[in-house]
Amino acid sequence: MSETVDWGPIRELARRVSTTGAHLALTPEAKALLRRTASEVGISDSEAESALATEEGALGLLREESQRIREGSRRLMDALHRMYQHKDKGDFGSAREEMRGVLKVEVVPHYRALAQGQLDDMADEP
Fold first, then answer.
1. CA-to-CA distance for 108 and 38, rounded, in angstroms?
2. Average confidence (pLDDT) over 24-39
3. What is the DSSP letter of 53?
4. 126 in a domain, yes or no?
5. Which among 36, 86, 102, 105 could disulfide-bond with 95, CB atoms 3.0 to 4.6 Å apart, if both were Cys?
6. pTM for this entry
7. Are the C-beta atoms of 62 and 13 separated by less than 8 Å?
């Protein structure tokens, strides 16, 4: 993936809302952040727009975005760790399966691209 993602602002917003109980004000800036992040985590534009119609929907969207980022990151990091262990043992078939496993379930395009890149890098291995 050629573009970098910056999920710091959405993580901060989610943290502020969930831990401090801060109100999610649907300012133009907050809506733009939620829209952008929705696209980055595999949520359709129509689903995001529908959610942004109400404060409750926007809060649900924020939670879903945060969950996809958190779970996708954890899933990819765990699979990468296992992949490197397999590669160190010369077991490239199992290493590839780790990345294929991520690709079977991952919805976040950035994480999918990283997993696919790892898989592509092993194309010439036994």
1. 10
2. 95
3. T
4. no
5. 86
6. 0.89
7. yes
Report whether 76 contacts 102 (CB < 8 A): yes
Domain that holds residue 99: 8-121
In-domain check, residue 110: yes
Cβ-contact 17, 9 below 8 angstroms: no
57 located within any domain? yes
Q: How many folded domains does the chain comprise?
A: 1
pLDDT at 21: 80
In a domain, 3, yes or no: no
The H or E element spanning position 17 is: helix 8-20
Computed over every residue of the chain, the mean pLDDT equals: 94
Tell me the DSSP string of 57-125: HHHHHHHHHHHHHHHHHHHHHHHHHHHHHHHHTT-HHHHHHHHHHHHHH---HHHHHHHHHHHHHTTT-
